[in-house]
Amino acid sequence: MSRISQIELDDRNLPPPTPEIEQERKVAIFDLIEENSFVLPKRDERDVPEGPYHLSLSIREKRLVFDVQTEGGDKAAEFHLSLSPFRQVVKDYYQICESYFTAVKTLPPSQIETIDMARRGIHNEGSRVLQERLEGKAEVDTDTARRLFTLICVLHFGG
Q: How many structural domains are present in the chain?
């Protein structure tokens, strides 16, 4: 199965992330590189270069850009996704993450667990939206979609 072997976020124009967001980002990238599934389907009867792939994620002109290259540096694909379908779920995810980070410092474990369950539910929704938006462009499994959604959140809210 094809996979992502390297990932880069184009965050040059973003403010520095908070320590919590930077940690989430590092974990998502590490986990993504360790295990993922990323397949470029055949399009218009044209063959697609085989992976592993290098993926660059960026936001350009209010669109999420997936720039996919082979390990040899050849262009494998590039696709642009509207950010509109992600706006509400990203906003909800950040709000629940703020609550979670605050709860970890002050609340008992039972309340932290409740907030964490809500956080996971919103994260799952974001990964589902991503899988839908990637349909016909790239095939990703649920864990890969979850990790990519985390990175989209970092880009979407600018750290």
A: 1
